[in-house]
Amino acid sequence: MSPKPPKQRSTRILVVGRTGVGKSSIINSVVGAPVAETGKYRPTTAKIERYDAEYRESTMVLIDTPGFGDAGWDRSNDERYLALIEQEAGEIDLVLFVTKLDDTRVERSEYDTLGALTNKFGHELWDRAVVVLTRADRFTRREYPDELAQRSAALREAMETVVGDRAHRIPFVPVTNTRERNPDRSRWMARLWLAMLERVSAPGFDAFVLSTISRVTSETASEEGDPDPPRQVTPTPPKPRRSKGTAVTPAPTPAPAPAPTRRRATTPSAATPAAVVRPVDRHPTSTPPTTTHSYVSDGVPVQHTTINVGSGVANITVTTQQSDRTEAVIATRASTGLLEKLKAAGSWIVSGIVAGVFKILGQ
User: Fold this and answer.
1) Contacts of 199 (CB under 8 A, 6+ apart)
2) Residue 39, Cα to own-chain centre: how many angstroms?
3) Residue 68 has pLDDT above 80, yes or no
4) Which of the 8 DSSP states describes residue 41?
5) Are residues 128 and 93 in contact, defined by beta-carbon separation less than 8 angstroms?
């Protein structure tokens, strides 16, 4: 009997931010299913909530930190709490720093969180960070660009005081958890996923790709803003003219304009067999099978939830420009053997991306 292949290393994602900023909604969006309870807009006892999302041979571990960084948090508990985070997460591959877009200032507790994480895990932790700005839908399309620029500048300045020049390289991604699009009509989940793809650590990269790529679908967009398809306007036929002694002859009605075509992902090459198309439910209505157990570690309560993520998870719709960017990132960062695993991932866009990667690599 041949030995069983070793299990793929998991991707470990730390989600930090004050209570009520939308961390649970972000976790649900990343997993693709409603596994974290939302709507608990109240300060809570400090604890650890761990979610292990298992996708076939890969696992994505998300560590939520309720209570940590809230107003009134006892800073003397920082070291013990951070040690438990390290124990649960191991090496942190990615940090999602979650805050509200519509906040008017950077809270003292956010400075404290930045400082505590930096002291524990080092400045290089922020090379693997993404700032997530929630509640983008609080602004109109006209207000949105200025509000985003002002909030991002204030946060970046605050982060610079703690993490230095690294703050200028951290991507800021605005999101709207109640809708698929931000006020500028961009699909925020695609932008968040791409930012995570680019920032996740090298050891966690393969597992992150394998855990999420089968959820990716593509659509055509002529601009980064991902506008809606143009409306087809049928010209109004001119009114017939009447002359004396001549019958009225109606003008011919022009044929309607053809519907716009939507370019799909890159067509697989002959060297790359086409994968089976597996439709993914955009709006899952049920929670996938989960198991939860709780325990106390060093006086801190821990809730550990394992999710068997299969079909029916929400997809990630990228534009063709973003699909091209995905190909470039995977071609640059993929380890040996990852492309072979992607071929068997079972999503039609995967075949297109793999074909594009082989083309980039000249294979």
Assistant:
1) 94, 127, 128, 129, 130, 171
2) 20
3) no
4) -
5) yes
